[in-house]
Amino acid sequence: xxxxxxxxxxxxxxxxxxxxxxxxxxxxxxxxxxxxxxxxxxxxxxxxxxxxxxxxxxxxxxxxxxxxxxxxxxxxxxxxxxxxxxxxxxxxxxxxxxxxxxxxxxxxxxxxxxxxxxxxxxxxxxxxxxxxxxxxxxxxxxxxxxxxxxxxxxxxxxxxxxxxxxxxxxxxxxxxxxxxxxxxxxxxxxxxxxxxxxxxxxxxxxxxxxxxxxxxxxxxxxxxxxxxxxxxxxxxxxxxxxxxxxxxxxxxxxxxxxxxxxxxxxxxxxxxxxxxxxxxxxxxxxxxxxxxxxxxxxxxxxxxxxxxxxxxxxxxxxxxxxxxxxxxxxxxxxxxxxxxxxxxxxxxxxxxxxx
Length: 355
Hints:
By secondary structure, this protein is of the alpha+beta class. The chain is built from 12 helices and 9 strands.
């Protein structure tokens, strides 16, 4: 059986709000802020706080924290951003209504059908039960869906649809981020390792010489063409790469250890290195493939560049648009602490790097 609480939680995540409160009795609400006459109350804030905590999966154990320190800390962290989102949402919805945006009956029905289908709600009774479990009415749901739709349309038509990326902007981004469009030079090797057994104390010269002699004999067999490097790597190597016939890579040349980089410098594909003493013992390398650095041409990277530049511009333009709406609005704060939280979050938002 489908978990109804989870279902409605998913609906609310899409909408961007927690479960709306049931129809309230005629009580005096504590108003926190008025935005062009539209009010945002303490109850509205509490609903969003609950939603934010649930969406983060944050569990507050009130029994073990009678002074509510955990809860207070959590609320202090989430409330500033909640207030920014609440005020901006009111401004965007107001602007959308000025532009004539609204959710039609047909659109609302289509959204409901999708919700039911995605959550496998087979009949209206199951859907209503899921809403009831979260204390949300059909009126509340429609209101929230409409507000979400209006915000999206304002964002698209007033900001995103007007953003373009010129050829000069794309070229400047390409030139200043050339390394991001360049695949570094890489190398593919095969190795044969003859380990030098050690007891962790002094080096046993005899053991070391025996390992060196064995490695030189293996290289001689390769050099004479008696057996292939791959065959010997699979049969006699002590390295883990033995399972792949000694194959290692491709590896960026920049990631190679200094001593190995020095060894392979000047080698050509197919060449075999001298026997070399390494940390693990005596090793022989064969250079399989050496690729040169490749830079993606501007024309080939143009679409990718456009997406990057658009993303950077989107955040900047969106913030400017919101700041303009805030400046033009009549915002009346009724609670100094909430106002302080809002202003702190706006400051952080303005200095945040592009997404």
